[in-house]
Structure formats: C-alpha cells, structure tokens
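I hope you will forgive my troubling you with a question about protein structure. The matter concerns a single protein, recorded as an amino acid sequence and a row of backbone structure tokens. Please examine both parts with care and let me know of anything in them that strikes you as inconsistent. Here, with my thanks, is the record as I have it:
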Amino acid sequence: MAKADIDFEKELWDAANELRGAVSENNYKNYILPLVFVKHLSERYEQVHSELEQLVHDPSSDYFTADPDEIDYVLEDRDEYRSRNTFVIPHAASWQYLKDNAEQDDIKVKVDDAFDVIQDLLTTYNPQLVNLLPRIFVKSELSAKQTGGIINLLSHPKFSEKENPESDILGRIYEYYIGRFAMAEGSGAGQFFTPGSIVRLLVELLEPYKGRIFDPACGSGGMFVQSLKFIKEHGGNKSDISVYGQEMTAQTLRLCLMNLMLRNLSFDIKLGNSLLDDKFPNLKADFVIANPPFNVSNWHPEDLPEGDPRLFGPREEFTTDGSANYMWMQTFWHHLSDTGTAGIVMANGAMTSNTKGERNVRQYMVDQGMVDAIVRLPDKLFLTTGIPACLFILSKNRDGKDGTHRERRNEILFIDASKLGTMVSRKLRVFSDEDIRRIADTYHTWRTVPAGDPVIASDAGAKQSQQKQSPYQDIDGFCKSATRTEVQKQDYKLTPGIYVGTEAEEADGIPFEEKVEGLKSTLLAQFEKAEELKKRILENFDKI
C-alpha cells in the first residue's frame, strides 16, 4: 500500500516547541508521544464504530438488524472492538472531547483523567501495558494554554488517520518525534534510538518475512517497526511475524509498547536487563535484530550462574567485566532457532579486541563457523555517539540444508561500507536507498544458491567453487569472501579492510615513464623557484 506523501515536519516541531520553557527538551517525548498514542486509539475506535454502524444497517451483512437494542449492543460490544485491534473509548477520554476542551483552564486535569480511563482499558486487556499512560500533565510546569496548544496542533486534519487512511500517519508522526527527540537529547538518546539508516540496512540484510523476531535491547521498537515496513513493501502479511523484546528502562519500554500498538503488531515485550536477567530463556527466534549499548563495563559477569546456557565456555574465560559486547553476542546466538540469523550493531573495537574474555568468544565464533558476514559502517551514522560501528551477521543456516542458502560454513563475507552514505548535516550521515541495496544485494548474492546451481564449498576450494558457480564476485576495496583459514591466519581479526584491500584506482592512460618525466621536470622547476625566493629573502635581510 503506497503511503500518502504528507509533509508535516514544521507543524510537528511547532507542537513540540509549545513545551519550551516549561519542560526540558529531553522530556518532550514524555508529553507529546502519549498524546499521539491517545489520538490514535481514539481515531481507531471512531473508525471501527463507523464500520460497525454501516454493517448493522446493511441488509447484505451478517450484522444487519432493525432492532435498536441489538444495534446498541453491537456498537458497544467490547469484543467486536478487540477483534479489530481497538478499544471502546468513552467520550470523556476521546480525542474529540480533549479538542473541544482545549481552551478550558482545567484541560490538564481532563488529559490526565483521559489517560486514567484508557490506562484501565489497556491494563485489563494486557497486564504488560501497566503504567503506559501515567498522570503527568497536572503535576507538570506546563500551562493550560501550552497543553491546549499541543492538542490543537495535533488536531490538524493532516494528522488524522481518518483523513489520510493510507499514510500510517500517526505511526510516522511517532517515528518523526523519536528521531527529533534523539537529536535534541544527544548522547542520552542512545538507549532508545537507533538511526533509520542502520535499522533499514539490518532489516534488508536479514529479510524477516515470517517467524519470530527478537530484540533483547529493543529500545523504542525501531527494529520491529522497520521489519513491519519491510514485510508490507514486499507484499507479506504482518500476522506471519511475532515480536519479542526486552528493555531495561521502564520509560523506554513505554515508548516501545505505544510504538507497537500504533502498528497493531502482536508482541511480548518485557522489562529487565537481558544480560543478567534473560526474560525469554527458552525463546528460539528466526531473527535476532539488535543494537545493544556499546562497550558496557562493570556489568557484573560474576552474577551470571556458572552454567549459564548462553555461555560458550567457562564464565571466567568467556566474559569480561570491561565490556559486555561479547556477552551480547553469546545471548543472541543462544536465542537463534536452528536456521536463524542475527544482525547486530557493534562497536568497531569488537572486531579486534584482545581482552581475554572477548578474544576467546570471537575465536570460538570463527572456529565454529558462526560468523556469516561483517560490515564496516561509515562514521557519523549515529546522532548519539562518535564511536565507529560495524554489523555482525551470525547465522545458523550456513550448512546449506535449508534449500535457500548455499553451504558456506568455511567462509566469511567482509564488506567495507565506510565510504558509503551522504552527509545531510554537519554531524549526520545517512545511507541512500542505493547504498542499502548495494550492501544487501552483495550479501544476498553471496549466501544464496543460484537458481538450478547448487554450490558446495570447502575451506580450500571455497573461492574456486564460488567463482565457477555463484554470481558473487569479490570487489577490491568493497567486499571479499574470505576462508576461515585466512581469518585464522590474521589472528582472528574481523576488520573488513584487512581482507577487502584497497579500491583499485582507475588508470589515467598515461605511461609510467611519462609520469616520472613529468614529475621530474615539475620538481626541477620548483627547486629553481625555491632558490630564487631564497636569494630574494636574503637580499631583503641585508637591507634591514
């Protein structure tokens, strides 16, 4: 379904700026996003109410009836609304009511009261949704005028799902705000926001059409939303995926739950620290897509049970208190199904770290054939950190037995994407659609069985068989399919630059001898000029 092209950035930032002075910028989201969410639930209820109203008056419908009591019963039947992913919203909690009362002195009370009513509906439906809409307006420094101003701005017809049925308008508004608030918050936003460029690339690499998707560091749910977009764009069905996530910050968890409810996704999101308190111990996912916090130190690996099933070996040898990066890797691997694939954003240091606990895990992953691909990312993709990053793709479908992918247990694909992307501001770089397509196509071509042409690769003959039977080709400076032996010889370093080499420069057609002669004559001329300048300077000194 094509999205309507609606330009709304200016009005949305105007709405956020209504908060200026009364609320710090890093708290804007706590006031704006719940209102967007309440507007969504209210509009969704109105739409379903209208649909049911048409059905009860349509003689060809199973709902048709002329009995006024039966009509009222159908229009107020909570199960009818729940089956259509919404709730019966009482008038005093509706967006229309808040809009009608936006100029009243007690509008802050009315908003908090509406939050209470909707919160009761949410908690009754799903206990996971407790405290999603806390009473925050009355005790805030916001004036009644500012609160009403936000309501009026969000009531603009271009922000209505009813007026723009094909635009996912409120979902897009929510996404816009999360991005803008991350920009305003700077380094504090890293816990809840992963830039769209990186999320889109990960999703295009993994292609999560159907199955279980898990993100143990899910933040505000961007990975899930992008997975849903991918499915829609490729004609899939969102009912074919189920979403699981864990988030350690209660406030961020609220953002995520609202984000997923805006998209009517089925989900199971839990609060907790995934490293030390895995809330999904038995979950095996088809896709793990995650951007865990980088280089977390002092995370207390000593608190892990000695026989933690996620660990590749003894706790003392496979963890380090200096960084949780490789505990995340072991967690992701543990949660993969027999044919699952994980895409993880990591700090560049993870590719070469020699700290015992990290080096041991990386060596184990290479020796056991777990690493499918490594992508080096360009700088400035993150608003929230200057730490250079890369992508680790880990996979359990490397044996070639799933019918879709070739056998590649003894190979690792290295992609150096550090030169891709375009600067859209002094601080931010983004990937174009073409950049994302180039990286993703390279990976898919490399790992996929060509039509009617099975590939069997051994460590020694991997490159040879690949050249004969696969359309994939190494490209100097960009991509290289390296054997496990090559990686072991490089002391298990996973930096793509080691393997892809430097990009071949285009020849300019001038013979080498001619170039040398040209350089020599230029240099001699510069020497002469230097002698002349030296003479003139000395003469000037004599005159002083």
In short: The mean pLDDT is 79. The chain has two domains: 9-185, 190-500. The first helix runs from residue 9 to 17. The two ends are 82 Å apart (CA to CA).
